[in-house]
Amino acid sequence: MAAPRGSEGASPVALFSPARFGFFRFMFAGFARKHLRAVRVAHWGLPGADDGARPLVVYANHPSWWDGVAFMLYSTELFPGRRMFIPMEAEALTRYRFMRRIGVFGVEQNSARGAVAFLRTAKEVLGAPGHMLWMNAPGRFMDVRERPVPMAPGLVRLAEYAPEARFLPMAIEYPFWAERAPEMLCAFGPPVEGLAGLERAARGEALSRALEATMDRLAVDAMARDPARFRDLLRGREGMGGVYERWRLAQAVLRGKPFDPRHDPRVGGKA
């Protein structure tokens, strides 16, 4: 029997509230518009067609606090037919209790009990059609240039509990181009198949290589600073804002000229 709603041990599937998820998705999008230049996905890195029939695990690098917002925005835009669940360090989740109602569940790190609980919950999540699990593969924050990219033991073992699952690598970066706010960039690599038949060491290497290859390719596009390489999912603020920008706008209006708030109109696409 599932634990009562609101209890610490409740199933994330039982606790999930579509209404609250929709509300916080709206709030996260507004927060991203306010603080980011744009949310983009590489054209080559768009996920393939997904019928929702097979279990899906999206595993990503972990460069920033923004990753949770990224998961929310990309999952709803690119996988609209699926419901997302996310493991999070249990102590950190105590500071964001509302997330328990939008698919986030706590994981006790560095303990056998926590590992068993994660695998049990992940198996439950992936056992329902249309569900998907998104997780930061390293289990800790790490720079996008760090190599090798470690794989959390729970992720490596997960193929044993969900042998039919597709494991989809996701690379994320937050570079500054020519504006005050950073870009949110992502790309998905080809799914990693056949993991259940590998030894754990070989399985971890296969997952790591696939994620590193996706990260390396996204890095090339990030360094190019060419928005034409990406599909925009959301556009945020441009320019420096504040009193000086309002003064520049007033000057443009008085002179009858168009106003472009960007620092360098030649970089980063159309305003």
Description:
The protein is α/β, with parallel strands linked by helices and 271 residues long. It is built from 8 helices and 8 strands; from the N terminus they run ααββαβαβαβαββαβα. The chain has helices at 12-15, 18-35, 67-78, 90-93, 112-126, 153-161, 200-224, 242-255, and strands at 38-42, 56-60, 83-89, 104-107, 131-136, 166-173, 183-188, 230-235. An 8-stranded mixed β-sheet has the order 4-3-5-2-6-7-1-8, with helices on both faces. Strand 3, helix 4 (90-93) and strand 4 form a beta-alpha-beta unit. Helix 5 packs across helix 6 and helix 6 crosses helix 7 (200-224). It starts with 11 loop residues before the first helix and ends in a 16-residue tail after the last helix.
Strand order of the largest sheet: 4-3-5-2-6-7-1-8
List unreliable stretches of 5+ residues: 1-7
How many DSSP E strands?
A: 8
Q: What is the overall pLDDT average? A: 87
Shape: globular
Number of helical runs? 8
Terminal CA distance reads: 54 Å
Question: Structural class per helix/strand content?
Answer: alpha/beta
Considering DSSP H and I runs of 4 or more, what fraction of the residues is helical?
Answer: 25-40%
What is the string of helix and strand elements?
Answer: HHEEHEHEHEHEEHEH
Strand content: 15-25%
Report on the biggest sheet. Answer: 8 strands, mixed
Radius of gyration equals 20 Å
List the helices and strands and how they pair.
Layout: H1 12-15, H2 18-35, E1 38-42, E2 56-60, H3 67-78, E3 83-89, H4 90-93, E4 104-107, H5 112-126, E5 131-136, H6 153-161, E6 166-173, E7 183-188, H7 200-224, E8 230-235, H8 242-255
Parallel strand pairs: 1-7, 2-5, 2-6, 3-4, 3-5
Antiparallel strand pairs: 1-8, 6-7
